[in-house]
Amino acid sequence: MKVTSLNRLPSVTLVTTHGRMTIEPLNQRETLFELIARVGIPWSAISAFSSRPDGELVLLPSLDAPFSSMRDSSEILLHFNRNVNPDLFNIQKYDIAKAEDGPEVSSYLYQQIDNDAGTVQHILKGLSQTECQELVRQHVHNFITENFSAGTSFVIGISGGGDSNAMLMAMTSFDAFDISIQPVILKGVADWDAGVPRAQELCRNYGLDLRVLEETEVRDICGIRHDRDLIHTYEASFPGDDFEFLGTFLIRRALSHMAAKTGSIVCTGLNFEDILAECLYRVCSGKPPLSFPVRQLRSTRFAYPLWMTPKKIIDGCFPKLSLDNYEMRYPCFSAGRNLYYMMAYTLQSKFPGSAERLVKGMRELVDKRGNDIQESDIFGAILNEGVSLEVSERFNRLMG
Questions:
Q1: Are residues 161 and 211 in the same domain?
Q2: From what superkingdom does this record's organism come (predicted)?
Q3: DSSP string, 249-298
Q4: What tens digit of pLDDT does each residue of 181-217 get?
Q5: What is the pTM of this model?
Q6: Domain boundaries, position 328
Q7: Mean of the per-residue pLDDT values for the chain?
């Protein structure tokens, strides 16, 4: 009599035109979906077939089936839907490059594609604080040289967090020609206020006078009533929406006001992932990307020196200051904002080199298609889409 173990699990084989790979389930409770996610196989790229005892192959309709329900199967075959090599971009196969000039504070995965040879190399590069700062300096210095000339004046939005701190460090070390720098920070919201001491410390280190806009000044510039709590009023007026939407609007308006006094360019700390997420949103909405890394909004020019600098590298410039900023953050509940940032992070993590090529390609689309920025007396420049009359009225009541 042949005895079959009740605990036996079917073998799982990924079948491609480039070969086969055996994958072992962790236990009976693991589902097929969990298995392919664990080993990095895209669920949309495979069709799963179960091999019955009589040898017949049957298409598995659900990836949610646990392996405990597949004891009658001798093997599960995962057929890759295209004749490509999925292992070519396997980021779990990488070489290591150690950090130089000090202990490692961050790391970044670099991807080198040789299309002629048909090879892809992944390098996990450890980064010291010195290396992170030098990379940011290189990116920012190249940005200034390519886009501006001697005598340019910049108003730099400072938050006390990693992005604006690294940007300030890089801009103050620029020496190809003379530029003027005026760092500005806003008060009036708890996490803004908490960043002031950090921003003051950094500006002192670089011999700069930090312009602190007190809450009363911010309200006057932005046209906000002084007799109401801004966050609570916003949450009551726009339930379920993140305050960050209003915060970004207020920062843009206040910095534009400061820049107008001196004919300056406004610099903010949008980084590589910010730009990538924005581009994905625009394209998914059927619109060309907005201009970057320099953008004209009404009479003010905005510049994004960190547009090609990943956040992991920026954080390595001032790890302690970045940590302080992270601990002050509040949750984001906007499904759209969550979606496009997660799309950006996923693309960047799986195909780091190609994500950079995508952003550079998006920039070319801007040059060819132009912007579709709308103008509003209430909101100023509207970057993404029109605003309904009902939303405009609510916003008017919020601002008083």
A1: yes
A2: Bacteria
A3: HHHHHHHHHHHHHHTPEEE----HHHHHHHHHHHHHTT-PPPP-SEEEET
A4: 999 999 988 888 888 988 888 899 889 999 999 999 9
A5: 0.86
A6: 130-399
A7: 87
